[in-house]
Design brief:
heterotrimer; A mainly alpha (259); B mainly alpha (430); C alpha+beta (182); A: 259 residues; Cytochrome Bc1 Complex, Chain D, domain 2; 3 domains; two-stranded antiparallel ribbon; two-stranded antiparallel sheet; 44% helix; B: 430 residues; mainly alpha
Chain lengths: 259, 430, 182
């Protein structure tokens, strides 16, 4: 009897999440393919973040992406999760200038960023960003991994998905062909090239490696508590399962005397 | 209420309170010794589960409301602050968003249980109607709540659905302007939605109280659909169903927690992690899954009703869709009168059972259709046609099948009593 | 099985049920308690609030005899660079005669610098005396216009209704010209 109810619950939930997931492929109905699945250290119920990859990804973001893309929901103090100590975080922040004020004279002034400041954006506002990029808005990257179907897989596919061959798609002047961008025509020029960012730890400096590390970094940026979430989740579910078992045994005991 | 003089309690504190306000006597009578059919299956668990989910939503909602800011400039950021800076904020947010989904899971199962076993039939008609009212309030609450994070889906879902009211002739446009508090979904809309979203759950709580009260007047239905005749047919609610309900609740919570901790965004839409932009419409505006069947019915009406070969239109396709969508739920209100068959439970009504199972499949199919683009095609069949077919069956079930079966369906022999039915089942099992 | 009676079976069943009952109740209690904590903790200061719980102040613009006000945790903090005369005056007071008995040495890290929370310990007004030209009260420190409390050059209450000296926050010198409050 319990099985029937359990089955029913699972069926209903699966039906709707199945239906929903199906809708994801409907969005790709404009013949844009799904991003192929990659292997990530954070996959699965026991996944964790590879901190070395996070640090490399952050470096790529700093050196390449931050020229056009902000990450305003991150603050410099968040970088301690990547393994940086308090001084290192202060130094990273200090590389950037922030507008503060007004001071006692009523004027706005520039100062170096502190750990408590949000990441400094390359443009003061969205209009400036669009204006500098031919009307296309480089999206903020804080949540990009959650704001796109496929998450890290999509990010990797997009960054490695540029090609000279346009596969018959008409690409206007000033735009580029990308295999995985919906509609295949993207305003962003291929941002990565081999050796564009020096890696101190000897990791290969290829486009694929940069794309992978960015996948890690951007997933962390969108979901910094993933490891806590999975760890706590495991304990909660284990607890509930044991509790359910005890309750079930108790129920059987109790109901046995009715027959 | 006519159950004799109040019994004294041994505990002096309990006795002091109870002699002044008989709360404990009430609890003893309504949840302690209350006689309940002994043959419930686990489908009877879902009312209590829904109650637990309501409380969960209210408690998580209140702590979230302490950190949320209802202003179009700040709303999205305040939610991100909850996710990143508030202690356990991510957990509370995911409990709330997935809690809404699981509240609907429990309520849909609860509703379909009621339909299958004829719980809507006399004398439980009002109990049923109160339940449908709760369902409507839940849908309003969930729709409004989804707007609050002010993501792309929040904004555009609100725009599409509030625009529907403009289909009403004459009063439509003024009503929409009044709802919006302006000329589009904007800050006035967001602020009033926050106020309403905080209010409605307590209205739901009040209606749930009435719903449970009505239940305690008639007593519960049961899988056999026949009323308890004597004490042999019933057992006390405590401890049998308090414990049995705990088992079901815990299993439900395991599944719920799996989603909260391991797939927290799977039932949502990635576009809602993009801040609302009135100038950019998402490629596909999709409501949350629990609205999809009704969304499909709304979109299924693509024809207008008027005088053929003229330009005269009485009902536009848009208005037709709105009528169909609300009509689909309105039918539930009158189910006790559409179906007047003397036998309650589908166990003893093989035709009703078959049509009902088809209805459930139809409902799920409508859900799938609602999730797809309006021009999508499945195995060569345009979903617009499938949607119309499924909508037609849905309405046919209530308007045609139920009344016809009421008169025509022959039934299987009912058992003598609940007790006999339980004994018969145990014999076949041992 | 021969020797056990139905009474024994019944007792065994009962004790097993009691054990299950107890275990279930224990799980329930642990579950509810653990569940309650995130709700309670979510009301504690969030990470962004805690990040602003310390303020660093650059002391170089402050001349001797000058004072400034900085915000720290939403409250005003007075930082005064004391003159020799002010230090001597603060040190020369008989502690046993004070309303709130504290020596100057107990209240400072370095004699030249006084750091106190600028909230009157009476009913919470902000005393005047920080800006040049403002009344400093009868003891050369601060004066609270709300109910007439006078504070000296060590921020101690000397006259008026305030019961305690101006609070000294936790602070440390990061360098000769920089302090971190909180």
């Amino acid at each position: 009897m319990k099985m029937k109810a359990l089955l029913h619950v699972a069926l209903v939930v699966l039906a709707f999440s199945g239906a929903y997931n199906y809708s994801a492929s409907a969005l790709a109905a404009t013949d844009t393919p799904h991003a192929p699945e990659q292997d990530w250290s954070f996959d699965g119920m026991f996944g964790t973040y590879d901190r070395a990859a996070l640090q490399r990804g952050m470096k790529v973001y700093q050196n390449v992406c931050s020229a056009c893309h902000g990450m305003e929901h991150l603050r410099y103090r968040n970088l301690s999760a990547l393994g940086y100590n308090e001084n290192q975080v202060k130094n990273i922040a200090a590389q950037y200038m922030v507008t503060d004020g007004p001071n006692d004279e009523g004027e706005m002034f520039q100062r170096t960023a502190m750990p408590s400041d949000p990441f400094v954006s390359p443009y003061p506002n969205d209009n400036a960003a669009k204006y500098a990029n031919n009307g296309a808005m480089p999206p903020d990257l804080s949540l990009i991994a959650k704001a796109r179907h496929g998450g890290a897989d999509y990010i990797y596919a997009l960054l490695t998905g540029y090609s000279e061959d346009h596969h018959g798609v008409d690409v206007p002047e000033g735009k580029y062909y990308n295999e995985y961008f919906p509609g295949h025509v993207i305003s962003m020029a291929p941002p990565l090239a081999d050796d564009i960012v020096p890696y101190e730890d000897g990791t290969a400096q290829t486009v694929e490696q940069y794309a992978k590390d960015l996948g890690y970094y951007l997933t962390w940026a969108a979901d910094p508590y993933m490891e806590d979430r999975k760890r706590i989740g495991l304990r909660v579910i284990l607890f509930l399962l044991v509790f359910a078992g005890i309750m079930y045994a108790y129920k059987r005991q109790l109901w046995a005397k009715l027959h | 209420m006519g159950s004799g003089p109040r019994q004294k309690f041994d505990n002096p504190v309990v006795e002091w309170v109870d002699s002044r306000l008989p709360l404990f006597t009430l609890m003893q009578r309504e949840y302690g010794a209350f006689p309940v059919p002994k043959n419930f299956n686990y489908f009877w668990n879902f009312g209590a589960i829904a109650g637990v989910m309501l409380v969960t939503m209210i408690v998580t909602g209140i702590v979230l409301a302490m950190q949320y800011t209802a202003n179009t400039e700040l709303a999205f950021d305040s939610v991100e602050r909850i996710m990143r800076d508030v202690n356990f904020g991510w957990m509370l947010r995911y409990m709330h968003s997935n809690g809404a989904s699981f509240f609907f899971v429990a309520v849909y199962i609860h509703i379909f249980r009621g339909m299958y076993y004829g719980s809507y039939k006399g004398p439980r008609e009002l109990l049923w109607i109160l339940g449908v009212v709760i369902f409507l309030l839940m849908m309003a609450t969930a729709f409004i709540g989804y707007v609050l994070p002010w993501g792309q889906m929040s904004y555009w879902g609100a725009t599409v659905i509030t625009n529907l009211f403009s289909a009403l002739p004459l009063v439509g446009e003024p009503i929409v302007t009044w709802l919006w508090g302006g000329f589009s979904v904007d800050n006035p809309t967001l602020n009033r939605f926050f106020a309403l979203h905080y209010l409605l759950p307590f209205v739901i709580f009040a209606v749930v109280f009435l719903h449970v009260w009505a239940l305690h007047i008639t007593g519960s239905n049961n899988p056999e659909g026949i009323e308890p005749k004597d004490e042999q047919d019933t057992i006390s609610f405590h401890p049998y169903y308090t414990i049995k309900d705990s088992v079901g609740l815990l299993v439900f919570l395991v599944i719920y927690c799996f989603f909260v901790f391991f797939a927290p965004d799977s039932l949502g839409h990635p576009d809602n992690y993009i801040p609302a932009d009135p100038l950019v419409t998402p490629a596909h505006i999709v409501p949350e899954w629990y609205f999809l069947p009704f969304y499909a019915i709304l979109r299924a009406i693509t024809f207008e009703i008027g005088i053929p070969f003229t330009d005269i239109v009485f009902i536009t396709a848009k208005l037709g869709g709105v009528i169909a969508m609300f009509g689909a739920i309105a039918l539930w209100f009158v189910m006790p009168w559409l179906d007047s068959h003397p036998v309650r439970s589908a166990r003893y009504r093989p035709l009703f059972r078959a049509f009902f199972i088809l209805l459930v499949i139809d409902f799920v199919a409508l859900g799938y259709i609602g999730s797809q683009a309006a021009d999508a095609v499945l195995f060569g069949i345009p979903l617009s046609m499938l949607g119309l077919l499924c909508t037609a069956y849905y309405f046919a079930f209530f308007i045609v099948v139920l009344p016809v079966l009421s008169k025509k369906e022959k039934v299987k022999t009912l058992p003598n009593s609940i007790h006999d039915a339980v004994l018969a089942k145990n014999k076949t099992h041992s | 099985m021969a020797k056990t009676t139905t009474a024994d079976h019944h007792k065994d069943g009962e004790s097993r049920r009691d054990f299950l009952q107890l275990t279930a109740a224990a799980f329930g209690a642990v579950g509810v308690g653990t569940l309650a904590w995130p709700f309670v903790d979510s009301m504690n200061p969030a990470k962004d609030t805690l990040a602003l719980s310390t303020t660093e102040v650059d002391l170089t613009p402050i001349q001797t005899g000058q004072a400034i006000t900085v915000m720290w945790r939403g409250k005003p903090v007075f930082i005064r660079r004391r003159t020799e005369a002010e230090i001597t005056e603060a040190r020369g007071v008989d502690v046993s005669g004070l309303i709130d008995k504290q020596s100057d040495e107990e209240r400072i890290e370095r004699p030249e610098w006084l750091v106190v929370v600028g909230i009157c310990t009476h009913l919470g007004c902000v005393p005047v005396g920080t800006k040049t030209g403002e009344a400093k009260g009868d003891f050369g420190g601060w004066f609270c216009p709300c109910h007439g409390s006078h504070y000296d050059t060590s921020g101690r209450i000397r006259k008026g209704p305030a019961p305690k000296n101006l609070a000294v926050p936790d602070y440390e010198f990061l360098s000769d010209t920089r302090i971190k409050i909180g």
